[in-house]
Amino acid sequence: MSKHCVVSELFVHPIKGCRPTAVGQVEVNEFGIKGDREFMVVRGGEKVNQKELPALAKICVEQFSPGHIRLTSEGVASIEHRRMTTGANSTVTFILDKVEVQDQGDDIADWISVIVGETVRLVVATDTFKRNLPIDPLKLAHDIPQEGFKDVSPVMIVNESTLEVLNSKLPEAVPVERFRPNVVVSGLEAYAEDELNQLAHEQFEFNYVSPCERCVIVNQDHESGEAHGNDPLKTLSNYRRIEDKYDSGIVFGSYFNVRGDGLVKIGDELVFS
Fold this sequence. Notes:
Elements: E1 3-12, E2 15-16, E3 21-23, E4 25-29, E5 32-33, E6 39-43, E7 46-47, E8 60-65, E9 68-73, E10 76-82, E11 89-94, E12 97-103, H1 106-116, E13 121-125, E14 129-130, E15 145-146, E16 155-159, H2 160-169, E17 183-186, E18 198-200, E19 204-213, H3 233-239, E20 251-260, E21 262-265, E22 269-272
Parallel strand pairs: 2-6, 16-17
Antiparallel strand pairs: 1-3, 1-17, 1-22, 4-5, 4-21, 6-7, 6-13, 8-9, 9-10, 11-12, 12-13, 14-15, 16-20, 18-19, 18-22, 19-20
């Protein structure tokens, strides 16, 4: 008998490391959510995220369409940006890949630099590239084409029930945004994502890759970047660990590849197997 779950929340992260934006629907293709992690902040020619620059969490990014965004932060005027195609090119190390990137100009770089308190630049990948992830736990993500800056594979999915269990163990509940998902689903039992092979939409399929191994960024407030002790990572470490790991081995959420393309909306049904 077919089993179903429902898309309960959707998030886009136009700039990697900045605050996620909740949306009602997104376009999906083999590269993931269109416009997700399209832009990346670099410092001294190296990528940075909230681990290195917690103040990135203070930046809200509204996406009008892929490549067209507006940045806001408390106490400063907002800035609108359209993807530039004429900036200087350089090469950035992204995990194990060397990616050719294009600078997005002084205006947006200066705006972000004021918020984070350091000199940074904003870049985009000039072309698609194939991920170099040559380890067994990530074999299903290895050599997959990517057009943005997703850490492992195109889509991150979180199960509401698994979050509810975690929050029942914490002194203070954390929102799902702490875990930076693209898709949140309801209707699955807690930890059912550990056994999934596929979540099928009527237009496309999410195919399971691996659990997402977590770092200390999940201990930082998703709106301020401030750390609040050792949770939820410490609590997760007590009961959500895997042996066949590629990083911390502490897991929450799952990575998926995409086969096909289409539009996914809050309330859409997914068939799981």
